[in-house]
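Problem: given the chain below (203 residues), write out its structure.
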Amino acid sequence: MLKISDQIGCLNFPCLDVQHEGYVIPDIHIDPQNVSMIMVSEAAPFVSSDYYYAGSGAAFERTTVEAFRGAGEEAASFKEILELGVYFTSAVKCAKTGYGIKAGTIRECSLILEEELALFPNTKVIMCMGDVAIKAINTIARRAGVERVIPAGSTYKIRCGEYYFRDIRVYPSYLQVGPSFGIEKSKRRMIGEDIAAGLAAAK
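Solution.
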């Protein structure tokens, strides 16, 4: 068992367009051998109690459970989703200060994300939930000397493509946390479809 927050982290906090007091790394013990799918969302929430693994009342957990139900999983709790072999993290480890996140911040945090992804040797699927996650994975790929994993274009047009990085299937999708998840029904449907496809590929 590994405690993720003991394995990775930011040392000098160089980014200026995020809230450093909102910094969070998954603080859980997990057997990395059991993880087959990793879901990468955008950034840490404004309030740490809304983050993944913070408890049943956390906003990230609540909407993620809804998203997996939309994928046909009869999950009653976040714990049940984790038992499916799914691990959750964010591309940017600090909370946002505005709507967007600068490319330099995504690039800086992708160094941490790359170390984090390397902890899980049996990963078959990476779900990129939103543009920031897509940019982070593409940044990691370019640093490794390969072309971008996910092509440019709107998520609506590219989400059904077949993409791989280091033999891991990568799915571009929409963000499953935050206020837009509960409002845009069409995106909720597509998120459910993408998660269902990812779970099937991860088996």
